[in-house]
Design goal:
The structure holds two protein chains of two kinds. By secondary structure, chain A is of the alpha+beta class. Chain A has 20 helices and 31 strands. Chain B has a five-stranded mixed beta sheet, with helices on both faces. Classes of the chains: A alpha+beta, B alpha+beta. Chains A and B meet through helix 6, helix 8 and helix 19 of A and helix 1, helix 2, helix 3, helix 4 and helix 5 of B.
């Protein structure tokens, strides 16, 4: 999503320090080797009078590891878990170096505190870009190793023996004569000096990393435990639902609240910058109140264009030179002199994220301190935005991060849109009761923050022998980063890296290569959607390469193989997916196979899709997926994320589109914004390339290859090259 | 006042008779297992039973189920429910987990009626329950595992 340090950008958002380092109870920050690895010696504040009995207090070893007297190891996840398994992954890293027993591991969310819990790739606390394992891999292992060393030191002291004689395995500490659990030693161990350095295990000695374990949150989720923001009820809490303008850029004009206020349970109606909030004692009363509310919208600045007009504009722009992104050699000249020229225009729709849990957040503001309960994905920005609205310091905004019912990018917002809404409501009401903001599904589908619409215009010249002579590639669409707090780190010379990723950095060997971009403006705010720019760039690249292969009369896998001589990891997944899919053998009757391979978020993924077309409808029967994501923390998670990411991309490829007419979004719920259902779920087989490379991401990289693999299979089946998403076969 | 029977408990609620059952159960009775996903009977996250039959609580007015035995995910008990939950854990089905109470309600209802469901039976019973994490493959496998358990 964004790799550079964005802390300074966030600071400029509020003209305040994003989060002051709280040194109370904080003895030392020791910086280890690697990418800003921090293990703090973190001693909880306990006044002389409030000291709990040693055998009942939780022992805090460092910001990441706490051990309870009941022998549970609590790992504080600095990252949001919205289904991707991160909390379990971080617990795995600690468990391994700590030599804990898996059954004693517990994952909870860390408080908002960027000094302790920043994403070391972002510089602020946040989850995204499939970075959770990659940025935490050594940090959480060091936290586990340090805690283990302190447990050993405590045991050595208690048993009056040498630490070197003590071993730890599966949660048991022993010197051969005495044994103790972590829980028994924890209180004394947490008081031991924090080691300056720790020695991490040789990967060959890993006991948990690289092995499959079920999610730590599985039982709670299977038993319908209240783990989501939506499930929280606080004393005196009121629920807010917001009426938003029907066109992007509209503003509340005049408001007639009489009918809304007449709804039983409605307590107030209040105008905020983005709309009009109806506040009530229950969710249903707030929804009914909003239905009864009458608002005349000021549409002076509203965008009244629709997707048809945008497409016309985008196509016109695609015919003109844009900002230069990359220029190797002279693509135009090479294409002009080529034996064969193939061109294509790829069209991508707006897409909503539509996580199952519609957006929500609770905010309570009392005595100049705010507390937020939310599936917070960018805690530091949520803090800064809420603080700026409420007129307090960011560190006076506490966040209780909750398990989120999906996100796919929607909960990580550069302007914390929905947190800002609830903060505005609280401010406007000057209320000290907690307010729970609830979005309905219609709010979610119509609410913007979409994966932007894009057009890619691609022209490639082939030599007589079918080699690429020149490739010209122009991308048209909204920049996600421009004008946001991330612009400073992500937009260079007008080029937003997330608009062109996957094209500008292709590993294919192309002698004359030119990439340009046009940034467009539209009222609907753009946002990253699972795999960000790769959600469209992989389709353009992989469909095009496939077309070139067919034009050259070469098998698509063989053709890619030639172009990937310098990319062994990419080639590795391609070969693995091809081999396991039976590439080169006849597919079942009535079906064809298509392939795509793409790198994103530090991981390489190849997929072979086996499809048929039934009554004009594309049906995907089987997907063989190969991934090289470096060192694997939990293969079960990798497998689950590949299944999920493939289906997410497939649902969009088959059905997904937000369309706009006269400035109004035409979809509203799951009946007209269609997502993948059980009957369309293909059989997915996941194969993982063993690797000692640094961990890459797994939440997003499975999404980019599926749409092109399916489109390429359709072409193999019936010769139709489908360049527009969602895929619509021609009669 | 509307009299409801929720998980075997008789309750009287003051909400208007046309209030959807989902909001009464979640906001008034504080049983949050059934989820709000769409409000239009399109996703299945709110699935409850009325006299043992799955219903979409988000569009079911409380007056229409007065006197019927309502079961929420919290009240789901018995051999089939245990087998289904165990199978869900075995196959590590849930990712974000938000839709899973509804998925489990639908799966238990399926197995109550058809202890050995075919793929077509699973398609018909489960296709109305959306999962954006797309745990569908595991749901299918877990239903088969639960079916095997129930045979034994």
């Amino acid at each position: 999503m964004f790799k550079d340090n964005i802390a300074s950008s966030v600071r400029s958002l509020t003209n305040a320090e994003p989060v002051a380092l709280d040194r109370r109870g904080f003895l030392r920050l020791s910086v280890g080797t690697g990418a800003g690895l921090v293990i703090g010696a973190y001693v909880p504040v306990r006044s002389a009078t409030s000291v709990q009995a040693a055998d009942t207090a939780d022992a805090v070893f460092n910001p990441f590891v706490t051990i309870t007297p009941a022998n549970k190891v609590i790992v504080l996840s600095k990252h949001l878990d919205k289904g991707q398994g991160t909390a379990t992954g971080l617990a795995t890293l600690v468990a391994d170096e700590l030599d804990a027993d898996w059954s004693q591991m517990v994952a909870e969310f860390a408080p908002a505190n960027a000094a302790l819990y920043k994403n070391t790739f972002f510089g602020v606390q946040g989850t995204g870009g499939s970075t959770a394992m990659a940025n935490s891999f050594e940090q959480y292992r060091k936290a586990g190793a340090a805690a283990k060393q302190m447990l050993v030191a405590a045991a050595a002291q208690a048993w009056k023996t040498d630490a070197s004689k003590i071993t730890v395995s599966k949660g048991v500490v022993t010197d051969g004569t005495n044994t103790a659990t972590f829980g028994e030693l924890a209180s004394a161990a947490a008081k031991m000096p924090v080691p300056d350095t720790v020695t991490l295990k040789d990967p060959k000695d890993f006991v948990y990393i690289g092995k499959s374990f079920p999610r730590l949150d599985q039982k709670a989720k299977v038993t319908a435990a209240p783990v989501f923001t939506q499930d929280i009820h606080l004393p005196d809490m009121l629920v807010a639902v917001v009426a938003r303008p029907p066109r992007f850029g509209g503003k509340p004009g005049s408001v007639d609240a009489a009918k809304a206020k007449a709804v039983k349970g409605v307590t107030s109606v209040v105008t905020i910058p983005g709309g009009v909030a109806v506040v009530a004692s229950s969710t249903w009363a707030a929804i009914k109140g909003r239905d009864a509310l009458q608002v005349t919208w000021d549409e002076t600045d509203a965008d009244k264009r629709g997707t048809a007009e945008l497409l016309e504009q985008y196509k016109a722009l695609a015919a003109k030179p844009g900002l230069s992104v990359r220029k190797d050699g002279d693509a135009e000249k090479a294409i002009a002199g080529a034996k064969t020229v193939i061109d294509a225009e790829f069209v991508f729709p707006f897409l909503a994220h539509a996580p199952m849990e519609p957006l929500n957040a609770i905010l309570a503001f009392k005595d100049s301190k705010a507390t937020i309960w939310s599936g917070s994905q960018l805690q530091t920005i949520d803090q800064s935005v809420a603080a700026a609205i409420l007129g307090i310091k960011p560190e006076d905004v506490a966040i209780n991060t909750q398990w989120a019912g999906g996100s796919f990018g929607r909960r990580a917002v550069y302007n914390s849109d929905y947190v800002a809404e609830v903060a505005h409501i609280v401010k406007a009401l000057a209320i000290d009761k907690p307010i729970k903001l609830v979005w309905t599904r219609e709010d979610d589908i119509k609410g913007g923050y979409y994966r932007p619409m894009y057009v890619h215009k691609v022209k490639v010249g082939l030599t007589e022998s079918g080699e690429i002579a020149g490739w010209h590639h122009r991308i048209v669409g909204q920049s996600i980063m421009e004008g946001t707090v991330f612009a400073a780190s992500s937009v260079k010379n007008g080029v937003d890296a997330t608009s062109v990723e996957g094209v500008s950095d292709t590993p294919y060997t192309i002698p004359n290569y030119e990439v340009e971009v046009h940034n467009t403006k539209f009222g609907a705010p753009p946002l990253w959607w699972r795999s960000v720019g790769h959600s469209h760039s992989a389709f353009a690249m992989e469909c095009m390469v496939d077309e070139l292969a067919r034009a050259a009369g070469v098998d698509p896998v063989a053709y890619r193989r030639r172009l990937l001589a310098g990319s062994p990891r990419r080639l590795g997944v391609l070969e693995l997916a091809a081999a396991r899919s039976g590439w080169g053998t006849p597919p079942p009757a009535g079906r064809a196979r298509g392939v795509a391979v793409h790198e994103s978020f530090g991981s390489h993924v190849a997929q072979v899709a086996e499809v048929s077309v039934e009554a004009g409808r594309v049906r995907v029967h089987r997907v063989v997926c190969a991934i090289d994501c470096g060192i694997v923390v939990n293969p079960a998670t990798v497998e689950a994320q590949m299944e999920s990411a493939i289906a997410f991309g497939l649902g969009a490829a088959l059905e997904g589109a937000i369309t706009i007419r006269d400035g109004r979004v035409q979809q509203s719920n799951f009946d007209d914004y269609r997502v993948l259902r059980l009957t369309d779920m293909p059989r997915v087989e996941v194969h993982i390339v063993p690797s000692r490379e640094r961990p890459g991401g797994v939440g997003e990289p499975g999404t980019p290859p599926i749409a092109p693999a399916v489109a390429n299979a359709v072409a193999a089946l019936n010769g139709q090259r489908l360049h527009e998403l969602p895929l619509r076969t021609r009669a | 006042m509307t009299k409801l029977s929720i998980n075997g408990r008789e309750v009287e609620v003051t909400a208007d008779p046309d209030t959807p059952l989902l909001w009464v159960v979640r906001d008034e009775l504080r049983l949050t297992g059934a989820k709000f996903g769409c409000g239009q009977a399109l996703c299945g996250a709110c699935t409850m039973y009325a006299d043992g039959t799955p219903i979409r609580a988000c569009v079911t007015p409380i007056e229409s189920v007065a006197g019927q035995a309502i079961t929420t995910p919290e009240g789901l008990q018995g051999r089939v429910a245990e087998a289904v939950r165990a199978a869900w854990e075995k196959h590590d089905v849930a990712q974000c987990g938000y839709c899973q109470p509804g998925q489990i309600m639908a799966a238990v209802a399926l197995l109550n009626g058809k202890p050995a469901p075919t793929d077509t039976d699973i398609d018909e019973a489960m296709n109305g329950n959306l999962c954006r994490c797309a745990t569908y493959g595991r749901i299918r496998t877990a239903i088969k595992t639960a079916s095997e358990t129930l045979k034994g």
